[in-house]
Amino acid sequence: MTYNKVQNATNRTFERTLTYDKYTDPKVLEKEMEMVFAKSWQLVGHVSQVEKVGDFFTAEVAGEPIIVNRGKDEVVRAFYNVCPHRATKLEKNSAGNKKILQCSYHGWTFKLDGQLNKAPNFRGEDENCVKDACLRSVRMEILESLIFVNLDDDAKPLSESYGDFFERLGKNPFLSELKRTHQKTRTFKANWKAFMDNYLECDHCHVAHPSFVAALDMNDYQIITCENYSIQGTVVKPDKKYGTVNLNEAEMQGGQFYWLWPNLMLTIYPGPGNMASIQIVPIDHETSMAVYTYYFRDENLSQAEKDLMEFAEQVRSEDIELVELEQIGFRSRAFNKGRYSSSEKAIVQFHEMVLEALNE
Ligand code: FES
Ligand SMILES: [Fe+2]
């Protein structure tokens, strides 16, 4: 998907707007799982989660259990978290440190690089049958300390998938100092795409987010569509503050709100070094889970950082309420599609990409 295509798409806004069955039909989600989620780069973690040899964490991508660890050779690897003996989910914990991974079924053990260590029920001549049994690896790339995996062996490398996004992100000087410090999840009753649509425009901000428009200069709010991602941003009004803490004038570069195809959002607010990611994981066609992850310099947050988190969470719950109301209407027979203003071109880009991924 190129920028040109997006521009073309804006001329066809009405014909290409997703029809509401895309938000209510379980078959559409089934197809999206295969064609969208199992073929795109998905954020699974941050290098601060695998700092030491043996550190691991588990994740789920398009329904697939995944494990990421740091090997004896310091290399970070990703595998399907599935035992090659008889498919049992290998590591049950969400995170930890292990020098050897053991399956809880028949006790096979694996080295950190995925090689089989021991298969206790294959002895003598049987041993030959399992010599080549090892964990199946998954494509993984790390950029700006963010760990992504892709289940599609033919997908373009991450570094080539999002235009100049990582270059842009890398301009934030504090990025390498951040750790993944907090994670919260919230389940809501709406299709995953409703959340994305909501994030991708700010026409609703004046109506729905009084604290957000009070903090940001909405006259200078911009939405720019780029290759497989978009960015929204603004400058912060110098006289405004988050909570009770004045923002340092020198740090007022405006917020950066990124979207990356298909379901990842990254936000950076002015003020102390910070980043948050939001991932929307479909539970079913009308239920989704928002995973909010925060990255700060330290787990012990300063007052300004706590205020920022509270501010972000307030805005998010306002959005959740809206998309749940929207889902009710998606099910109604009143209309079968919506209308999009010219300031909603990032939604048009998203919809174009959904249709393209589904071959429609
Ligand atoms: S299924 Fe894992 S050891 Fe048998
Ligand atoms: Fe919003």
From TrEMBL:
Record keyword Lyase present: no
Keyword Nucleus included in the entry's annotation: no
Keywords from the named record: 2Fe-2S, Iron, Iron-sulfur, Metal-binding, NAD, Oxidoreductase
InterPro entries xrefs: ARHD_Rieske_2Fe_2S (IPR015881), Rieske_2Fe-2S (IPR017941), Rieske_2Fe-2S_sf (IPR036922), Ring_hydroxy_dOase_asu_C_dom (IPR015879), Rng_hydr_dOase-A (IPR001663)
Residue span(s) of domain Rieske: 41-149
GO molecular function, one term: 2 iron, 2 sulfur cluster binding
Gene3D superfamilies per the UniProt record, alphabetical: Naphthalene 1,2-dioxygenase Alpha Subunit, Chain A, domain 1, Rieske [2Fe-2S] iron-sulphur domain
Cofactor: Fe cation
PANTHER family (UniProt xref): CHOLINE MONOOXYGENASE, CHLOROPLASTIC
Protein name as it appears in the record: (2Fe-2S)-binding protein
Protein's organism: Mesobacillus campisalis
Phylogenetic placement of the source organism: Bacteria, Bacillati, Bacillota, Bacilli, Bacillales
